[in-house]
Design a protein that fits this description.
The protein is α+β, with helices and mostly antiparallel strands. The chain has 12 helices and 10 strands. It folds into 2 domains: 165 residues, no CATH class; 126 residues, no CATH class. The strands form 3 sheets. Strands 3, 4, 5, 6, 7 and 8 form a 6-stranded antiparallel sheet that branches. A two-stranded antiparallel sheet has the order 1-2. A two-stranded antiparallel sheet has the order 9-10. The longest helix is centred in the C-terminal third of the chain and has 27 residues.
């Protein structure tokens, strides 16, 4: 339910609630609004890596779905990403007892950790995970994206991809093809088919063990494909494969998404594999959008604010459109010269 600004402000004075901020559009998020939640891990890149969207926080490139609860958190959370996240956090979180301030220094425990504990412990700055490779601890935050904004971008954002040799359908000398997220999703079944086909291929281990020995599917995957990037060769037209990357040092590994994809494909659960790949590729696609608009992954700010003033957004959008139109005109004139 969308409330008017007056109703929101009146309720906030009584209940102490506020509007969340969309991490992608910077628009307000009302109570009950559907959102995508991305978990963020404090980045180790620091000042040396400000050319990326992950300069300050490393996202888990797998969202879960929720509804904003009006108090900084979510409710009715669901999705394959939610289940995997809760399991991963229970394994990696740093347990804490109740602190000196019993109202804010809440206990953080693996046992019973779920949706309520996730949002509350982050709100109080108490959720941390251990860094098992480098040692130490890192803080966990989250950011919400409005689902209506995400859905609109996924449906309408057209990306041009270079193919070269005049083999494309658009762009300079037909060297590009254009696609939307729907085209990426359409290639998921073929991506899974190719994973299954390569895992079924004989390996040298088959000869060594003999026909009567069964090789575990995960081992066969490691022997035949090695990583998800190698499912198709480089520059293959399968668009889903374009968004599978081993550039994992910039993204959180609280969930090993590649291992999770391999596990469900090896188990023969195509429905679950399709859902997992869809949500992972959605996150990868949105990260591409973050790069395109020079945005960075950060928690939503303006906590406590009920501002919903649309004129400021419209003025900013109009100014951006005018600047881009003028830039396009200037570049077109240069090309003609």
């Amino acid at each position: 339910m969308v409330r008017s600004g007056f109703e929101q402000n009146a309720r906030s004075k009584i209940m102490g609630c506020w509007n969340k901020t969309c991490g992608l559009s910077k628009l307000h998020i009302y109570a009950g609004d559907e959102v995508l939640v991305f978990t963020l891990q404090e980045s180790t890149d620091g000042r040396g890596n400000r050319c990326y969207s992950t300069a300050l926080f490393s996202p888990i490139l797998l969202p879960f779905y929720s509804k904003y609860d009006d108090y900084g958190g979510g409710e009715e959370s669901h999705g394959i990403g939610f289940d995997l996240l809760m399991t991963a956090l229970q394994d990696k979180l740093v347990e804490m007892p109740v602190g000196e301030n019993q109202y804010h220094d809440i206990a953080v425990k693996r046992e019973g950790f779920g949706e309520k504990e996730y949002f509350e412990s982050i709100h109080e700055g108490r959720l941390k995970v251990s860094r098992r490779v480098f040692g130490g601890e890192s803080a966990i935050e989250f950011v919400m994206f409005r689902k209506d904004i995400v859905d609109d971008i996924l449906a309408n954002y057209v990306i041009e991809h270079y193919v070269g040799d005049g083999k494309g359908t658009c762009g300079w000398e037909n060297n590009y093809i254009s696609y939307t997220f729907a085209d990426v999703v359409a290639d998921i079944p073929a991506f899974i088919d190719e994973m299954e086909r390569k895992m079924a291929q004989p390996t040298t281990l088959d000869d060594r063990l003999g026909a009567d020995k069964e090789i575990p599917p995960s081992l066969r995957f490691a022997l035949t494909i090695h990583s998800l990037e190698n499912v198709f060769e480089w520059r293959h037209p399968n668009k889903a494969s374009w968004y599978i990357s081993n550039d994992s040092h910039r993204y959180s590994r609280i969930i090993d998404i590649a291992d999770a994809i391999v596990e469900v494909v090896c188990a023969g659960d195509r429905a679950k594999a399709t859902e997992l790949l869809h949500d992972h590729l959605l996150a990868q696609f949105l990260d591409r959008v973050m790069h395109d608009v020079r945005a960075i992954w950060t928690p939503g700010c303006h906590e406590g604010s009920q501002s919903t003033e649309p004129d400021g957004y419209r003025a900013l959008t109009a100014a951006i459109n005018r600047a881009l139109d003028e830039e396009k005109k200037r570049f077109s004139e240069d090309d003609e010269e």
